[in-house]
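Example 3.2
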Amino acid sequence: MNLVEKLLKGDEKSAARLISLIENGAEAGFKAVESIFPYTGKAYILGITGPPGAGKSTLIDKIALRFAKENKKIGVIAVDPSSIHNKGAFLGDRVRMKEAEKIGIFIRSMANRGYGGGLAKATIGAVYILEGLGKEIIIIESVGVGQSEKDIFYLADTVISVLSPDFGDDIQLIKAGVVELGDIVVINKADLEGAKEAFRSLSAYITMSNIDNKKSWIPRLFLVSAKDKTGIDGLIDAISEHKKYLEKQSELEELQSKKAKGLILSLLKEILMEKVSEKLINSGTFQQIVDKVIKREIDLYMAANSLIKEILKE
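Structure, written as tokens:
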């Protein structure tokens, strides 16, 4: 019995192996996704984004436990920052999800490997694999890198933006772009000083930002403490509410089309960049240009444009 057959029968070890194949760029992994794809499209995908230190991992732990109590089959994909030396994940997220791991919730950490959208390229494949495994709810934690987190919007059905009480002033909030991504916004660490003031400030900001919003969904705001497990029930209710909202939308097909286009373009950029980079790095021309930069003969802009000309020539 091959890995895909075992996966479809619920074998989590096969899921882990298939995700590793995709992470490593193995053709067998992407071939497996082709076989799994007909079994996908039924899971509810929850994206969790927000700046580092906001408590995303701890919050996911509590959300996953809450869904598990409802007998839902849960899978978690935690995208860690990459080590600059070996491109591996730091694995800090799984450390904070011990309760979920203890009760057997499938958790997979993966490195983003420099992928600018806050998601590993393999995340999309991992989602398909977890769907094939029969997971009903898949929670994705992104790295948390501000505006480039838009790819989480394309992949998830519902996005939760997580902030800590010290998120900063309104200008920094707007620049971060995190709030605009969230269907639900959470101020975590409610036990910290200034949490209530932050809640009031952010509530006013969301209200002002949605004055001209003609859509029926306005981002919901919650003050929670993942550490003390307070506010989690209300957050779960809001997730269910947004799910029902999506199911009733007449423009759902249009939204799905927009998200599919975004994901395809993101993958296209990443795959093209990988292939072009690999070819350039292995060419003598690339090293010649690098040497010119080191000798201060050309600047970095000139170097990049020279490489583009080389690519277009081919």
